[in-house]
Design goal:
The protein is built from 10 helices and 10 strands. By secondary structure, the chain is an alpha/beta fold.
Length: 259
């Protein structure tokens, strides 16, 4: 995690943050998460760091409603999500780009054209979409996100890891989200694609999305985040300012250090 060569992401410098979009209050899950509270504002990137097993992915899934919680609440723009589940979260404007892209992020055997409208269709309760509309939509996002694909009707499995990740992102952007949670957004993709993902995160931040970035890559968290939450054993051990935090500070809290 520390001391390895890394192409530095562009720092997210936008400080024109707006109102609180995501508000997590006292979120707990027995033996996994304990009393997690934090907020994310429009135009802000909050990074979540910690060692493996600290509860980072579990927190993302709990916020999204993919895993049950014992207590606490999740609010989007001041409205509490009741009986929280993935579909309610989607309709409330929360998107989750999961850690396991191939098994949880896309239908790998389907085409880009078939994958991109899926979340939007779930959100609206739509069952079908004309193939011509699917293709036009896919071609729009291929251009917008610079997805390298020969044919939008080819299986996503034929794309590189970075381009698969862009298809996952296209699904959420097409659905229209206010909160975007990115769990290991650049895992398993090449350096060039990483830089493009960083630029996209920066652009989405400037557009006013509330973004949560979870990453094992400390340089990535440090460069992208306005604030950094460090997790240790299912709790938030520290909150650090993104401009002044260092790898040493993050690691100190990640291993349970106390000031």
């Amino acid at each position: 995690m520390v001391g390895r060569d890394f192409t530095k992401p562009p720092r997210t410098v936008n400080r024109q943050v707006g109102e609180v979009v995501l508000d997590v209050r006292d979120l707990s899950r027995t033996d996994v998460l304990r009393d997690i509270s934090f907020s994310v504002r429009a135009g802000e990137v909050v990074g979540i760091a910690g060692l493996r097993g600290a509860g980072r992915t579990e927190l993302a899934r709990a916020i999204f409603g993919a895993d049950p919680i014992t207590s606490g609440e999740v609010m989007v723009r001041g409205k509490k999500l009741r009986n929280n589940g993935p579909l309610r979260s989607i309709r409330a404007g929360i998107g989750l780009v999961p850690e396991e892209r191939k098994t949880q992020g896309v239908f790998i055997a389907l085409s880009s054209a078939a994958n991109i409208p899926i979340v939007s269709m779930l959100k609206r309760g739509t069952r079908t979409l004309k193939p011509s509309r699917e293709r036009r939509l896919a071609e729009e996002y291929v251009k917008k996100l610079r997805i390298k694909v020969g044919d939008v009707n080819a299986p996503v499995a034929s794309l590189s890891g970075g381009n698969q990740q862009k298809v996952v992102l296209a699904k959420w952007l097409n659905a229209g989200v206010d909160v975007l949670i990115l769990d290991e957004p650049t895992r398993g993709i090449d350096i060039g694609a990483k830089q493009e993902i960083y630029e996209l995160i920066h652009s989405l931040c400037e557009q006013g999305l509330a973004i949560v970035v979870i990453s094992s890559e400390l340089p990535e968290v440090l460069a992208l985040s306005h604030r950094i939450l460090v997790m240790h054993h299912g709790e938030i051990a520290a909150e650090l300012d993104g401009e002044t935090a260092t790898e040493e500070m993050v690691m100190f809290h990640a291993v349970g250090g106390k000031n």
